[in-house]
Amino acid sequence: MAASTAALGGGSSELIIAADKHRDFLTLQLQSFNSVYLAFGEAAIAGAGILLIVPGCSVRVMGVKARLAVYGYAGGVADIGIETCEDVEYRPGSFIWFL
Fold first, then answer.
1. Is 44 a member of any domain?
2. Given strand 4-8, what is the order of strands in its sheet?
3. pTM of the entire structure?
């Protein structure tokens, strides 16, 4: 359902979405089983920043921080869903615990 996706190869900081001075909203959702550390406006590193740990985890960013470039660090291959429309909200189904 994401408007776009980014695939991370793992093992280094990688660009998820470029900076955009006109963007006011951003949602990033982990869509794979490798955890991802996020950083805004700087390189991502293991053990720092926002951690998306299991598939379905997401972060919503609004305002000035949403305009920065976002980088991710994953220990292995990971997929991130990207949505820049403020009117989209994800809610997991009642059987999410089966993952």
1. yes
2. 4-8, 78-83, 25-30, 58-62
3. 0.85
- The whole domain housing 12 covers 4-87
The residue written with tokens 């660090």 in the block is 73
96 lies in some domain = no
What values do phi and psi take at 9, rounded to 5?
-80, -25
What is the DSSP track for 8-59? E-SSSEEEEE---TT--EEEEEE-SSS-EEEEESS---TTSSEEE-STT-EE
C-alpha span between 92 and 86 (Å, rounded): 18
What digits encode the pLDDT tens for the residues 34-79? 999 999 999 999 999 999 999 989 999 999 999 999 999 999 999 9
